[in-house]
Every structure is written in structure tokens, then in C-alpha cells.
Amino acid sequence: MDNMLFSVFPNENFVDLGLYQFGWERCAPSHSFGPAARNHYVFHYVISGTGTLMADNKKGETQTYQIKSGQGFMLFPNQINTYIADKNIPWEYTWLEFDGLRAKEAVELAGLSVDKPIYHDNSKELSSAMSDEMMYISKNAKESPFHLIGHLYLFLDYFTRSASTMRLSQTNRIQDFYIKEALAFIEENFQNDISIQEIAERCGLNRSYFGKIFHDALGKSPQEFLINYRMVKAAELLKLTQLSISDIGNAVGYPNQLHFSRAFKSIYHLSPMNWRKQNLLIPVHKKY
């Protein structure tokens, strides 16, 4: 086996749980990455060796952690961090970059946070199964997106159940109900001109409290989530259909094409037209 495997996940249409890139590496002595900030969650599991993680906490202060085999570390979205392999016993690790509606919930369930990013297991059997899932994904990048997402769910199951600080919250059950109501309303009405006030009213909550519990649960404001949801749907239509940009904008709740293009570019960093050119799965037949 070479010293590194690295793959980028080819599909961005998974809303609940998405995979972005993944791999395995046997690091050279003192190999380092950073300082950098990621857009998504990135979990490294250390198979052997040791190294150092330097990561900002909630106060913006840099904390230093020594991490050895059998442990892991989570990099959080927008968190500045650097990690360095030991010069004498450099680590070998496997990693996954993931995100989605269920990501924040799973990470919190495992007891990890910006202030507590280090994974410790309470079951060697479960942590071994977790590591196996990570390596399976890393070695099977050519499998279908659904196949890999299925193994990502298995990874999260072993990850949350093996974490020694795993906690099950009983107090958030009523909030979970509200969030499910909100997500169902968005799924049914995203193509319409809906407001955050309407979503809050669907849940029977005032807008301020609704915004707070929504952000706590999903890590995004209701407005940010609605825009992301609409743009994921737009990307599906751009990739899979020959509908015009204007028609796709209308289909996801943007009757103004300019507003749609701006919103799409804010998420995908390309105009809808340019994104389609790079990702279209069926040929567009010109009309003469």
C-alpha cells in the first residue's frame, strides 16, 4: 500500500448527511497541516503513532493536545487548527470530512465540541468497527454515492456509541419535535414564498425562540438552512434536467433570476450556468 489514499466525494445531494472527502495516510516525521479552517466537520482517527493538534476554542484561544493511537480528533467548521505528526513516531490516521442535518447532532451526542475535540473510546470493539468503516470508505472510493453514504451512517453509529463521553439528552425531545415540524414544512413548501415567521407559526412558537432552538439543533439559522435546502434542490435540477435557469429558480422559490443566481453562487461559488456546465449528467440539445 502507498503512504496515502485521498478521494473527493462526487455527489452533493445528500441533505441529512453528506460526505465531502476522505482518506488514509501514513505520515512522514513532523508532517503538518495548517493553520487552516475547514467548511465542514473532519474527523481523524489515529491508527498508530502520535502527534499534536493545535486548535482554537470558543474564545479564540489556541489549545494544544497530544493525541496517540486509539484516539481521534474532530476539526469543526470555521475553526482554525494545525496538526503535526511526531518527529520520532509519526502517526498513521484515516479521516472523513462530512456535514449535513444530522452531523451536529451526532458530534454532540459523542460529547465532542470545539472545547473538547478529542475522541476517546469506551469500547475497543466499537472503535475498531468505526475504524474499519473509515478505512472501507477510504479504500472504496469508486463505489456508488449511496453505498458510501450507507457506510458513513455506520461510521457515525459506531462513533457515537463508542465515545466515552456519549450522552443521551432527554430534555431536547420536545425541541426535536419542533425541528421535525419545521423541516417537514420546509420540505413541503420550499418552492413557495415562505417566511421564517410562517415556519415558526407552523411550530406554534415565536420567531425568536424558534430561531434559537433551530440554530442550536442544526448549527444554521432557519434562513441559512432554507437557502441551503433550496440550492441543493436547484443543483439537482441543474444536474438532472434541461430546464432553463429561470424555470429552476421558480421551482425553488426564486421568481427573480438575479436573486436566484446570487443565492446559488453564495453556496456553490459558481453561477448556476457554470455549475451546470461542470456537473450536467445529460446532454443539453441545442435548438436550431
Strand and helix map with partners:
Blueprint: E1 4-8, E2 18-26, E3 32-37, E4 41-48, E5 50-56, E6 62-68, E7 72-75, E8 80-85, E9 92-99, H1 103-109, E10 118-119, H2 124-139, H3 145-162, H4 173-189, H5 196-203, H6 207-218, H7 222-240, H8 245-251, H9 257-268, H10 272-279
Antiparallel strand pairs: 1-2, 2-9, 3-8, 4-7, 4-9, 5-6, 5-8, 7-10
Which descriptor suits the 3D outline? globular
Major sheet attributes: 6 strands, antiparallel
As a percent range, the share of strand residues is 15-25%
Q: How many domains in all?
A: 3
Q: Which labels suit this protein?
A:
288 residues, Jelly Rolls, Arc Repressor Mutant, subunit A, six-stranded antiparallel sheet, 10 helices, 10 strands, disordered C terminus
Short description:
This protein is α+β, with helices and mostly antiparallel strands. It contains ten helices and ten strands.
Word description of this protein:
- There is one protein chain.
- By secondary structure, this protein is an alpha+beta fold.
- The chain has three domains: 4-162, Sandwich (Jelly Rolls), CATH 2.60.120; 170-219, Arc Repressor Mutant, subunit A (Orthogonal Bundle), CATH 1.10.10; 223-288, Arc Repressor Mutant, subunit A.
- The chain contains ten helices and ten strands.
- It has helices at 103-109, 124-139, 145-162, 173-189, 196-203, 207-218, 222-240, 245-251, 257-268, 272-279; strands at 4-8, 18-26, 32-37, 41-48, 50-56, 62-68, 72-75, 80-85, 92-99, 118-119.
- The strands form two sheets. The protein has a six-stranded antiparallel β-sheet with strand order 1-2-9-4-7-10, with helices on one face.
- Strand 5 and strand 6 (62-68) form a beta hairpin.
- The longest helix is centred in the last third of the chain and has 19 residues, at 222-240.
- It is globular, with a radius of gyration of 21 Å.
- The termini are far apart.
